[in-house]
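re the bet — no i am not wrong, look at it urself. input seq straight from the record:
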Amino acid sequence: MSRRMPQELADGYRRFREGRFVEEEARYRELAEGQTPRTMIIACADSRVDPATIFAAGPGELFVVRNVAAIVPPCDTSGGYHGTSAAIEFAITGLKVENIVVMGHGLCGGVAAALAAAEDRPVGQFIGPWVGILQDVRDELLTRKPDQNEEDRQRTLERMAVQQSLDNLMTFPFLSEAVEAGHLKLAGAWFSIMEGELHWLDWDSGVFEAVVVD
């Protein structure tokens, strides 16, 4: 096992210390006293889809949790390890965030795994059960649009997954109470890697609409 820092990380850290940290040293010192982000982003672990980059956010501006396919599991108090659920709980009860955005993206490997599982193809010991959370919406899609081509099916499920995660968020009592009290707003988004284009969910129509930058 290597004890040396990979060179690309060492180089990146050097650039951070010599550049951004120098420029924002006062902010980092302020953040050492605590964080007060207004927005939580639940995003995919995919290296190409970094919320801080997409929203040009500075240190302390976003509270981010990332996992395979940006999935929110339904509330489950029966035990086990619940990293995403724990982050959601802390965001609501500890940080008192005002917004939660579930952001899926194009070419998502986790969503592709969910589709592969429908054909009984191996997807991984841990990945399989995780993307199995999407089973109901995946099967609904396959039943409703059996002739949809592979690319469109992938994109449709990526967006349906966002909507299901938003529904699953509302199964957490402390979160639904915050929404009903008007203290918290939920939103869905989908990011196209190739075009660098963000699509925002319109609650009334259920359609993801491209965000127009003036």
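see?? Residues 1-34 form one domain. told u. also Strands lie at 39-44, 62-67, 99-105, 185-192, 197-201, 208-210. so pay up
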